[in-house]
Amino acid sequence: AKIMAKELEMGGYTKSVVKQWAYISLKPEYFRKHRHRYERLSEQGIPAALRWRVWPILLDIFALRTTEPMLLAIHSAAEIPGDLQSTINADVTRTMPMFREFYPEGDAYEAGVESLRVMLHAYASYNEEVGYTQGMSYIAATILVHSEDDKDAFFMLIQFMNRLGYSEAFRPGFPLLQIFTKEFKILAGDMFPGTMEHLSNLGAEPEMYTDKYLLTMLGANFPVPAMLRAWDIILTRMSLKPLMRSLLTVVKLSSDSLAKMDLERALRWMQKDFANPGSGVLDDMDRFLKVAKGLKYDADEVRAKAVAADADAMGGHKQKTLWAKMKHRLRK
To answer: Which own/partner pairs from 18-27 qualify as long-range (CB within 8 Å, at least 24 positions apart)?
Structure first.
């Protein structure tokens, strides 16, 4: 770990932080024993030069590789319906161009797009019930860029979907998106009643912008450095609560700006414009994360309110079952 730390650019991190992340890239079992320590450490971000080593450990892909070797065969020769192939083939050419691998004018573009295409074909074959939905390409692209090779990226995507319960975001009816939006309504309404009432009076309802945060895991609206900082925390905690806090923080830091906007401007702001330089929201990511950390709430209480308020939205018992299934991912 000491040798590796010397080889890395510090990137603003102390030697101690670099060494701690470098250590678990060599000793993954240490992370499992000291997860709480790394949960706190993740708030500072994982050094960029180490993400490709650390994220696979956070997602525990090595256990998947040993228990499901047939995934290698799926990745090599995935078969999916023609309509899915066409959708994927179109989406991969316009996904995350801010990454070098997907920048149309870059020398890595063709190889990057082909790797992303194969990865998404393979996942659609692996999880036929989910298949492929727009938004997944953002998540897959971010994972691909932070993996050692294409096969590891495929394993990382599977674990991301399984361990975070994220596949529920892309199933028919988008059940996780429904849960996320309902809980956001309750939380934001309690924390920022004036701002949320103003947005509602304009006609800017949460259903019109929460998908931009959840379905792409911030890839559609956060600048890459800020998005990666949020991913570091989410993957280390293996929880979607930091994602919810990110959206709540956008509302909190935007309250003065939103108060002066009409419907069109407010929607654009909540969907993406909040991330513009000079907006005062993401200009200082350390400040943003500090504000987010301070937004405390009881996830069980919020969930109980959401179920009681809309018990029939997903078919009664089915909704409660899904809420129970997701509770440990939305709680931490």
So the answer is: 18/47, 18/50, 21/46, 21/47, 21/50, 21/54, 22/50, 22/53, 24/54, 24/57, 25/1, 25/50, 25/53, 25/54, 25/57, 26/1
- Number of alpha carbons in the 13 Å side-chain half-sphere of residue 83: 2
pLDDT in tens, 59-102: 999 888 677 778 888 888 888 888 889 999 999 999 999 999 99
The encoded tokens of residue 23 equal 């250590």
| Contact indicator for 250, 196 with CB cutoff of 8 Å | no
307/316 Cα distance (integer angstroms) = 9
Query: Is residue 116 a contact partner of residue 95, using CB atoms and an 8 Å limit?
Result: yes
Instruction: Dump pLDDT digits (tens) for 8-29.
Output: 455 678 888 999 999 998 999 9
Residue 197 φ then ψ, to 5°: -65, -40
pTM over 0.85? The answer is yes
